[in-house]
Amino acid sequence: MEKNTKVIGFNQLKEGMVIAKNVEQNGSILLKKDISVTQQIIEKIKKLYVIGNVEIYCENTAAKSSEIELKKETQYKKIENEFNEISLALRKTFRQLINNNEEALNEVREFSRKIQNEIQPGSLVIKNIVLYGSGTDSIYRHGVNVAALSALIGKWTGLEKAKLNLLVYSAILHDFGKTKIARELLMKEVGLTQNEFNTIKTHAQKGYMVIKELSFLDKAVSYGVLMHHERLDGSGYPLGLKGEAIHPFAKIIAIADVFDAINSDRGYKKKRLPFEALQIVKNESLGKLDYEYVKIFLEHVIDYYTGEEVLLNTNEKCKIIQMNVNNLEKPLILKGEEFIDLEKEKKLYIKEILL
């Protein structure tokens, strides 16, 4: 139990109290740590439980809630600033890598260290990517986002430190080959022709040809670069590999790559609705993305959405109370004093997650 917390019964919950530890039901989070209790939440809990306990903060709850929000905002800005700085520095580093520059590799290692330091709490990294993605920067900021997500997945799957470092190096460098593609093609604001798309698809192999020659780098890093667009059913590129032929680093990077790309504006497409990325990743785990890695990714990520404030297509503000693992785009929400199951309200959907 944390300092300045206490355990009380559900029947002792009062409006304004702040939850100090996640409350789980059947393996999913019902009440998220640091969420402020409302009267509607109390009524919902009473309906779901006959008896039970919950851990809350002892100190002044209004002050505690304000303190938590201020801390989150400060951490959020810190992550955003750090990721932007790394993205800018990567431009110079990528130019140096072409010359097999050991100093550039030392910078990649330092970027990896910084990224791994910034992924706690992971909820702020996830929220950052869901809110903003990597924008139109499909190389540098995208690489940082993918590296952060890959680091989280690597930690969740229990990768040892040495392999986790190599995974993050690979994720940072995964789109290095795009530096060999004409910028006007990468920034094109209308749909790509098949020939143009085929040109862009060469980036995985172009990146691999440079990265594999770096004498100071483990070969596993280059395999992640080469194979991050391969898919388990053989529908990926550049080699059309299947199943176990695809390196584990590439399987992890592929999930992070898809998630960030869907949450980002590109010249030729707009970012999708906030929960579409989760659903698409889940759908692609059936034959394309690695099922076990996706399962671990989703099990952790959906917890971060609980308690978040969102905007409906009706422009009404609501709060997510519980995610629906069977329909990720349709969670249980609280609108004013009313609980709404979006799975039953076909005309309503979440169009935006609010900061």
UniProtKB/TrEMBL annotation:
Q: Which GO terms describe its molecular function?
A: hydrolase activity
The alphabetical list of record keywords is: Hydrolase
Name this protein carries in UniProt: HD-GYP domain-containing protein
The record's EC number reads: 3.1.4.-
Q: State the organism named in the record.
A: Candidatus Clostridium helianthi
What stretches pass through the bilayer?
Answer: none
Question: SMART domains under this entry?
Answer: HDc
Question: What is one Pfam family matched by this protein?
Answer: HD_5
Residues in HD-GYP domain copies: 117-313
Which InterPro entries does UniProt cross-reference here? Answer: HD/PDEase_dom, HD_GYP_dom
